[in-house]
């Protein structure tokens, strides 16, 4: 079972949604939509949308290679696609490089293009989520084998919080670049783009378990962030509109 499957199996076990997977290069999306929105052609449509946004970013990076490599905020060039502009803006708020927001950006942009801003949808991209739900959902938190909290806690997400970005960064689990030792830095924000960037920033802060509160305070200081859960070893800090439930 992969990292993302273990982390989000509680979310995707919802029988009211139809789930399908769409992949392109290193983007691997699990998409759940209502039965009313599902049609035989929607899978191909989702793949086409994913490819279009990936190509936008690839073409922009050819023009502006620094955008892909910098670990610090940077401005976009004139004419940059909207997805790159939003990634750069979120990265500037979080104090990280714009590619720290790419997975969340892809999840959000695909979701909104696929069903619009109002319809129910869940798009998960490598552990980063865009969620718009009309009912309460639970998202399990994976914090690695060394943490006391792994697979024991879930976020309770109520409809009034949606649409919502829920993104996770870890220095001990998965393959994402992190300069910290957090087992999980989970960020809820008004957009998945911002949540992804801030998750990276918060995880970078954690060098030892006692840094979890410092990381949560950092997340709390960034406009648009709605909540944070930071875990390292046997330490956990939570802030904002967070409701944790035991599994």
Distance between the termini: 18 Å
**Tally of helical runs:** 7
Silhouette: globular
Low-confidence stretches: 1-10
Count of domain modules: 1
Structural class: alpha+beta
Q: What's the number of extended β-strand segments?
A: 11
CATH architecture annotation: Roll
Mean of pLDDT: 89
CATH hierarchy class name: Alpha Beta
How large is the share of residues in beta strands?
Answer: 25-35%
Q: What fraction, in percent, of the residue positions are helical?
A: 25-40%
Question: Can you tell me the CATH topology?
Answer: T-fold
Largest beta-sheet characterization:
8 strands, antiparallel
Structure description:
This protein is α+β, with helices and mostly antiparallel strands and 247 residues long. It has one domain: Roll (T-fold), CATH 3.10.520.10. Helix content is 35%, strand content 26%. It has seven helices and eleven strands. The chain has an eight-stranded antiparallel beta sheet. A three-stranded antiparallel beta sheet has the order 5-6-11. Strand 9 (225-232) and strand 10 (235-240) form a beta hairpin. It starts with a helix and ends with a strand. Mean pLDDT is 89; it is low at 1-10.
């Amino acid at each position: 079972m992969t990292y993302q499957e273990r982390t989000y199996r509680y979310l995707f076990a919802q029988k009211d949604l139809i789930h399908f997977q769409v992949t392109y290069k290193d983007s691997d999306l699990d998409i759940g939509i209502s039965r009313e929105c599902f049609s035989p052609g929607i899978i191909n449509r989702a793949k086409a949308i994913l490819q279009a946004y990936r190509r936008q970013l690839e073409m922009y990076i050819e023009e502006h290679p620094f955008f892909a490599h910098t670990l610090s905020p940077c401005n976009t060039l004139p004419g940059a696609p909207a997805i790159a502009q939003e990634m750069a803006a979120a990265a500037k708020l979080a104090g990280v490089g714009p590619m720290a927001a790419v997975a969340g950006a892809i999840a959000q942009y695909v979701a909104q293009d696929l069903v619009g801003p109002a319809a129910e949808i869940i798009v998960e991209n490598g552990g980063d989520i865009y969620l718009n739900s009309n009912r309460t959902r639970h998202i399990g938190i994976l914090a690695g084998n060394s943490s006391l909290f792994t697979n024991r806690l879930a976020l309770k997400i109520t409809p009034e919080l949606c649409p919502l970005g829920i993104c996770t960064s870890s220095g001990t689990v998965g393959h994402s670049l992190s300069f910290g030792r957090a087992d999980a830095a989970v960020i809820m924000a008004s957009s998945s783009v911002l949540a992804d960037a801030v998750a990276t920033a918060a995880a970078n802060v954690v060098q030892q378990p006692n840094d979890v509160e410092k990381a949560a305070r950092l997340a709390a200081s960034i406009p648009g962030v709605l909540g944070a859960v930071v875990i390292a070893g046997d330490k956990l800090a939570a802030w904002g509109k967070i409701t944790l439930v035991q599994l």
